[in-house]
């Protein structure tokens, strides 16, 4: 996937003096320079694809650089213990404490206020659990609902949570046909994402958590079909900032 990218889940939100990373998949390895902003990482859940990039996060190598890491307890595992499952022998030769940076672990309770950013959350519908996040800053908001399986009985909660958000990032891994054989995996379709977008009146949508078996051409086809479901043609959806699109590596959205 040369256009859409093959990195696993990581989204960077910059606002004011804060740089907030949502998940620490392999995408975090190529983070841009965030300057002097305070660094925080919020984990949706500790599945390997969402934490795999953390050992290679460049800011871990900066001496005394503070990085706040937030994750809900997973069973009996604290936030630090969840990271420790990966950052320890024999999977990795050093622990989080061995890096020059100062990693401060927090067992997440929501909401959280970081500077002028309010971070709220709700439970996702995913095997083993997960968190859907909403970040609000000076009247603008983004919702991050990766690894979310659409369920009509639970969808109203997400619709209300994402009400009139400026950007809805939501799981759209499977086609409707693929989902038939993968129910219970914790992922959704663009059709259900468009339904959430319409009902919540979200202003813009990005589908995330692409299936690694889907090529650029396949994703472009899914993207066009999703736009048509929303009621816009390909030409109406063109431009630097599409209203309905699949997330692309290194895409920058300014709200």
What's the topology here?
Blueprint: E1 11-15, E2 18-22, E3 38-42, E4 66-71, H1 79-84, E5 102-107, E6 112-114, E7 117-123, E8 131-137, E9 140-145, H2 155-161, E10 167-171, H3 176-180, H4 190-200, E11 205-208, H5 216-230, E12 244-246
Explain this structure.
This protein has one domain (11-246): Metallo-beta-lactamase, Chain A (4-Layer Sandwich), CATH 3.60.15.10. Helix content is 17%, strand content 24%. It is built from 5 helices and 12 strands. It has helices at 79-84, 155-161, 176-180, 190-200, 216-230; strands spanning 11-15, 18-22, 38-42, 66-71, 102-107, 112-114, 117-123, 131-137, 140-145, 167-171, 205-208, 244-246. The chain has a 7-stranded mixed beta sheet. Strands 1-2-3-4-5 form a 5-stranded mixed beta sheet. The protein is globular and about 50 Å long. The two termini are 27 Å apart. The mean pLDDT is 95.
């Amino acid at each position: 996937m040369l256009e859409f990218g093959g990195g696993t889940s990581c989204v960077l939100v910059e606002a004011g003096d804060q740089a907030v990373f949502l998940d620490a998949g392999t995408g975090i390895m190529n983070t841009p320079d965030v300057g002097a902003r305070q660094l925080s990482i919020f984990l949706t859940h500790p599945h390997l694809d969402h934490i795999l990039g953390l050992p290679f996060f460049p800011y871990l190598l900066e001496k005394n650089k503070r990085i706040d890491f937030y994750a809900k307890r997973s069973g009996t595992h604290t936030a630090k213990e969840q990271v420790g499952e990966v950052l320890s022998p024999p999977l990795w030769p050093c622990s989080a404490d061995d890096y020059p940076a100062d990693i401060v672990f927090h067992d997440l309770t929501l909401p959280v206020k970081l500077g002028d950013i309010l971070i709220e959350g709700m439970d996702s519908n995913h095997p083993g659990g997960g968190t859907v996040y909403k970040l609000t800053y000076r009247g603008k908001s983004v919702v991050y609902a990766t690894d979310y399986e659409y369920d009509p009985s639970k969808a109203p909660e997400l619709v209300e949570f994402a009400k009139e958000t400026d950007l809805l990032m939501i799981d759209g891994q499977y086609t409707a046909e693929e989902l038939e054989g993968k129910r219970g995996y914790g992922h959704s379709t663009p059709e259900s994402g468009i339904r959430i977008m319409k009902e919540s009146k979200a202003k813009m949508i990005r589908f995330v958590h692409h299936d690694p078996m889907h090529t650029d051409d396949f994703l472009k086809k899914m993207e066009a079909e999703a736009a048509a479901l929303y009621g816009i043609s390909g030409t109406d959806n063109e431009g630097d900032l599409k209203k309905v699109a699949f997330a692309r590596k290194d895409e920058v959205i300014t709200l």
